[in-house]
């Protein structure tokens, strides 16, 4: 089985009702997953491809996003367990404890936590696998010259 990740989504935005509660929740689960929060301002913050803002931010057009399901990659089952514990400790609600989900595939190990807005947030480990790359680097040409 081969999964391709990191080719479809450039970034996602969640517009949340309570940005401080979401900042606490996502900072905790990102810490458990080894994902740094890369930037922060009064009305938003972001990590990797996920941008989270308040309805007051200029990026949100004043409206919250609807309920979504986001699945974050974990490097092993222990990281899934840590994600679940961190999410619950930071105000999340259990939506499926850590464990194998053989209905997805035999090695699928995941946990689900509802964030403060009711979004279904998952961490998943697919079992033994080889990654073709840890990340994709995009070099942006701000001067108009071509690479």
Kindly describe this structure:
This protein is α/β, with parallel strands linked by helices and 147 residues long. 19% of the residues lie in helices and 27% in strands. It contains two helices and eight strands, in the order βαββββαβββ. It has a four-stranded mixed beta sheet with strand order 1-4-3-2, with helices on one face. Strands 5-8-7-6 form a four-stranded mixed beta sheet, covered by helices on one side. α1 packs antiparallel against α2. The longest helix is centred in the N-terminal third of the chain and has 15 residues. The radius of gyration is 16 Å and the shape is globular. The protein starts with 11 loop residues before the first strand and ends in a 22-residue tail after the last strand. The relative contact order is 0.19.
- Strands side by side in the biggest sheet: 1-4-3-2
**pLDDT average, as an integer?**
90
Structural class: alpha/beta
In total, the number of strands is 8
Radius of gyration: 16 Å
Question: Can you tell me the residue ranges where pLDDT is under 50 for at least 5 consecutive residues?
Answer: none
What shape does the CA trace take? globular
Question: How much β-strand is present in the residues?
Answer: 25-35%
Main beta-sheet strand count, sense and barrel state: 4 strands, mixed
State the helix count. 2
First-to-last CA distance: 35 Å
Order of helices and strands: EHEEEEHEEE
As a percent range, the share of helical residues equals: 10-25%
């Amino acid at each position: 089985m081969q999964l391709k990740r990191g080719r479809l989504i450039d970034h996602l935005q969640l517009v949340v009702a309570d940005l401080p509660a979401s900042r606490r929740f996502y900072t905790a689960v990102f810490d458990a997953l080894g994902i740094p929060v890369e930037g922060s301002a009064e009305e938003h913050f972001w990590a990797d491809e996920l941008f989270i803002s308040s309805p007051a931010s200029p990026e949100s057009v004043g409206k919250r996003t609807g309920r979504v399901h986001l699945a974050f990659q974990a490097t092993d089952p222990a990281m899934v367990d840590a994600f679940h514990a961190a999410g619950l400790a930071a105000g999340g609600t259990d939506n499926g404890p850590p464990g194998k989900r053989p209905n997805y595939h035999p090695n699928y190990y995941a946990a689900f936590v509802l964030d403060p807005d009711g979004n279904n947030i998952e961490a998943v480990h697919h079992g033994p696998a080889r990654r073709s790359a840890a990340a994709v680097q995009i070099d942006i040409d701000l001067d108009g010259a071509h690479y």
